[in-house]
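User: Show me a protein chain along with its predicted structure.
Assistant: Here is one chain, sequence first, then structure tokens.
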Amino acid sequence: MRTLYIITRILTFPGAYLRGFWEQLTCRILGLPVEIPGYLRIDEACSHVEHALAKKGFASYLMATGAGFMNFMTGLPIFLAGFMNLRYMGITPYDNLGYFIFYVIITYIGFSMLCNIFPLVEDTMNLFDVAYKQKKMNIIGRILFAIPSALAFVGSFLEKYCITFIALAAAVILSFVI
């Protein structure tokens, strides 16, 4: 499974690299030390930065969801801009080769960003430990962040086993077939 995970991160390298950048930026904002620099390492933390775990409630929430949120918010419009033109506007290489290549590239870049939105399992485990077990987050924060935290938790396990990549790839392929 680890090999498949690394292959999917390499296939989606623009999104994986940007995800690592957002994590590095979040670590700098929160003052968390980054242990090993580099975003595209060939290990189970590919597309993530190796960092110290956050000790406070909101900091752990931001580490678990912030980078993925930024990747989602930049990847979705890019993906839709390319996908809508290819799928619904019907741009083909026979219409205009330059436009077709451009839309294929931005669809790929948006797809790669959407495949890299979930955190490492360790970050979500730390979030639930700090916020819900140790109760270092106030009750309002625990209630407001419950659904995004649960989505990040489930998504991190799905991404660990490459299910997010496979599901999104299948959805895109099926949308062109149907």
